[in-house]
Amino acid sequence: MAYVTTTQLSSRLGSTMYGRLTDRVTGTTASATTAQQIVAEAEAEANSYLAVRYATPIDLTVNAELADIMQARVLDLAEYAAWKSSPFVNDMPSRVQDVYRAALAWLRDVADGRVNLPADEPLAGPLVMDDSPRYASSVRRLTADELDGL
After folding, report:
1. Phi–psi pair at 100, nearest 5 degrees
2. Is the peptide bond before 133 cis (omega within 30 degrees of 0)?
3. How many angstroms separate the CA atoms of 146 and 95, rounded?
4. pTM tops 0.85
């Protein structure tokens, strides 16, 4: 399930910048293939954080209340990736860097359990992990009775 589409990325960037950031040949004509790759990588990056606590990809048809937040964060990641991977731009705007860092911080907080996704239904996720140490001793070879008298 996709969190964002290439059309949403194009809307965020504007048509001129969308073409400049997705065209790898001349920097003028938008490339749907490159844009789809950028979106897929951004979604994979988001899922890599979310997968620590939730089954991914998160089904936005079941948890529609998450659509806006997931779209915003993944678009932040995709916009950064588009700027970073384009051979036709030198200076990434500080706004793009700031929203990218904020998106990563939010995803880390979700992964670390400091932020819970606001789902109406509990999200599918792994069972609670118990990271406590495990202690086990082997069977005693000699009992106190066998040692009596030594």
Report:
1. -65, -50
2. no
3. 76
4. no
